[in-house]
Design brief:
195 residues, two-stranded antiparallel ribbon, alpha/beta, Rossmann fold, globular, 4 helices
């Protein structure tokens, strides 16, 4: 008989505490490795790319955003428009002023166009063996991805985010890929990769 699966809230606290313990130099190195891997993967896409503004020790992809913008790619950032509602994605023109959104997270101003991105890049606290994402528990990405169907959903996180065992909730949509400093894990073929 296998051991019971850990509670999501306990697991989230444990993973966030481990992420908080990373030294600034480790975070910068991890973000640089993720940026390089993700940039290579995004070369095969042509549509808009939704990134995120980093908070709480998430990998900082702003240098990637600058590179993609210089290449002429269309970028977007998620915007919470109402509590318990799906997010929208507004066009992000790198270098132009942003405004403060919910929880003081920078977002594009309301006069920027809403986009339907081909690729959505999401931060993960944890990711299970079948690609299900553990986030902060608000459900914003879950609601958004249930309504929108981007061609590619890519989770990014630190190497310690990989979970050997994780019970997905019924509303969880699995990621297509998980990019971490050590590599890229694909969940598209239906086989659960080794942790």
């Amino acid at each position: 008989m296998s051991a019971p699966l850990p509670d999501r809230a306990i697991l989230r606290r444990r993973l966030l505490a481990a992420r908080d313990r990373l030294a600034p130099s480790e975070r910068r190195a991890a973000a640089a490795a993720i940026t390089a891997r993700l940039h290579g993967r995004l070369r095969t896409t042509t549509g808009a790319i939704a990134l995120y503004w980093p908070i709480r020790g998430e990998p900082d992809l702003r240098p990637l955003a600058a590179v993609l913008a210089a290449e002429g790619r269309t970028l977007a950032l998620p915007v919470i428009v109402a509590r318990r509602a799906p997010m929208v994605f507004r066009r992000w023109r790198v270098g132009r002023p942003l405004v403060r959104g919910v929880w003081d997270i920078p977002i594009p101003p309301a006069d920027e166009a809403e986009l339907d991105p081909e690729v959505v890049v999401v931060p993960v606290v944890g990711v299970g063996p079948a690609g299900h994402r553990l986030g902060y528990g608000g459900g914003y990405y879950d609601r958004t991805l249930a309504r929108r169907r981007p061609r590619l959903v890519v989770g990014v996180g630190h190497r310690g985010a990989r979970l050997a065992r994780f019970a997905a909730a019924p509303h969880d949509r699995p990621l297509d890929l998980f990019v971490h400093p050590g590599g890229i894990v694909s969940f598209r073929d239906g086989r659960a990769p080794a942790p």
